[in-house]
Design a protein that fits this description.
The chain is of the alpha+beta class and 146 residues long. The protein has one domain: Spore Coat Polysaccharide Biosynthesis Protein SpsA, Chain A (Alpha-Beta Complex), CATH 3.90.550. Strands 1, 2, 3, 4 and 5 form a five-stranded mixed beta sheet that branches. Strand 2 and strand 3 form a beta hairpin. Helix 5 packs across helix 6. It is globular. The two termini are 16 Å apart.
Length: 146
């Protein structure tokens, strides 16, 4: 999974690569995980917990990045930070993944790409006890250790 993400990210010359995982991928692998999904025009996704960002982008406007990270569990709050036009389009399900990336990248004066990740694990939050237990059970089934 990590190798896949690195190889995929290296194919893009952008400031930020953000992993998203489709609802059906999460639910097939971890049914009942209670993930938060963002409903877009073309799909429902949740954000991945492993992303690649150029250091200059992360340090340009640290306050906004801290607010985005603090609201990472709430896509509506994140959209409000990014802009109400994006929030409005998202709520009406008129915003596609590609259009969302373009708008966010433009707003932050950077280049970006959303990567649709085939690995459900990348979006699981092991800070939630029920998701941690799901991950442990999954690893045990695969013969992996904590």
């Amino acid at each position: 999974m990590v190798d896949w993400d690195i190889e995929t990210t290296l194919q893009s010359d952008v400031d930020l690569c953000y992993n998203v995982v489709k609802r059906e991928v999460i639910e097939a692998r971890y049914p009942g995980s209670k993930r938060t999904f963002t409903k877009l025009k073309d799909m429902e996704v949740c954000g991945g917990d492993m992303n690649v960002v150029h250091t200059s982008v992360a340090t340009k406007n640290n306050e906004i990045w801290e607010k985005l990270v603090a609201s990472r569990k709430n896509p509506v709050k994140q959209a409000a930070i990014i802009g109400f036009d994006i929030l409005f389009l998202m709520l009406l399900r008129m915003l596609s993944l590609e259009d969302g990336v373009k708008k966010v990248a433009s707003r932050f004066h950077m280049t970006g790409r959303a990567i649709i990740c085939p690995y459900a694990e990348i979006a699981m939050d092991v800070d939630k006890p029920h998701q941690l237990e799901m991950m442990r059970a999954d690893f045990a089934k695969q013969g992996k250790h904590d």
